[in-house]
Amino acid sequence: MNLNKKSLVDFIKLCQRVLHVSRKPGREEFLNVAKITGLGVIIIGAIGFIISIGAQLLSGI
Questions:
Q1: How far from chain centre, in Å, is Cα 57?
Q2: Does the reported pTM lie above 0.85?
Q3: Where are the transmembrane segments (predicted)?
């Protein structure tokens, strides 16, 4: 039980360290991340759509 308590304390200290170092992104950085994330979602959706259309075409043959 002592090992679990030590692990938990170490985890909490690590979380505090990360929160202390982290910062709120600026407007430009946020917009860049949002654009890249949106582009990734669109690309993955397009790939899924193409695979779906291909599967439907192949099942009809």
A1: 32
A2: no
A3: 36-58
- In this predicted model, what pLDDT tens digit does every residue of 4-53 receive, in sequence order? 777 888 999 999 999 898 889 999 999 999 999 999 999 999 999 999 99
Calpha distance 13→17 (Å, rounded): 6
Rounded Cα distance, 23 and 35, in Å:
20
For 42, phi then psi, to 5°, come to -65, -45
Residue 43, both tokens: 């690309």
Helices (H) and strands (E) in the chain, counts: 2, 0
